[in-house]
C-alpha cells in the first residue's frame, strides 16, 4: 500500500491530466509521480527514454529489470514488468527461473546469462568487476568507439517452453553453492 494517496487523473490539474490522457496505461507509479506536478513531464520523458531509446534490446532490458526486481524484493516492479517481459519475447520458463533466482538454466542463452550476471554484480557490489565489463562490447553506448548495431534476438521454442538447470547449476544447487 502506498504511503501517499494516488492522484487520480480526473482530479489532477489540467496539465497533468493532459499527460495522463496520453499514457497507454494509468499505472499506480504514474499516479504517485503526478503529485510532483512540475516534475511529472520530465519523469515521463525519463521513463520513455529508459524503455524505448536505450541500446539494450527490449528482451535483455526486461530480463535485467526482472532480475533486479527479484534481487531487491521489489514486488511492484516484478508485477508490472512480467507482462512487459512477455511482450518483449521473454518466455514463461525464463520468468519462472528468475522468480526462483536462477540465472544458469539452459533456457537462457550465453548473452542473457552474461547480462543477468552483470546485473547481479552491479546490484550486490555496486560495481562490476573488470571481467564482467565484456558486456560493454555486446551493447556499446551511443557515441562509443564500437560500431552501433542492433542485435537480432534468436528465439528458440525449447528455450521459452522449458527452463532446465544447466548441469553446472544443478551440481552447484545440489552442493548448496549458489
Describe the structure.
The chain has 178 residues and is an all-alpha fold. The chain folds into 2 domains: 9-52; 58-175, Up-down Bundle (AhpD-like), CATH 1.20.1290. Helix content is 56%, strand content 0%. The chain is elongated. It starts with 13 loop residues before the first helix and ends with a helix. The relative contact order is 0.11. Mean pLDDT is 78; it is low at 142-161.
Summarize the structure.
With 178 residues, this protein is an all-alpha fold. It has helices at 14-22, 28-33, 37-52, 58-71, 75-87, 92-99, 110-124, 135-138, 157-161, 167-175. Helix content is 56%, strand content 0%.
Beta-strand content: under 5%
Number of helices: 10
Shape, principal axes of CA atoms: elongated
- Poorly predicted runs are 142-161
**Major sheet size, sense and barrel closure:** none
How far apart the termini lie comes to 32 Å
Q: What is the class of the largest domain in the CATH system? A: Mainly Alpha
What is the level-2 CATH architecture name of the largest domain? Up-down Bundle
Structure classification: mainly alpha
- The H/E string reads HHHHHHHHHH
On the 0 to 100 scale, the average pLDDT is: 78
Q: Which topology of the largest domain does CATH recognise? A: AhpD-like
- The number of distinct β-strands equals 0
Q: What's the Cα radius of gyration?
A: 19 Å
Total individual domains = 2
* Helix proportion range: 55-70%
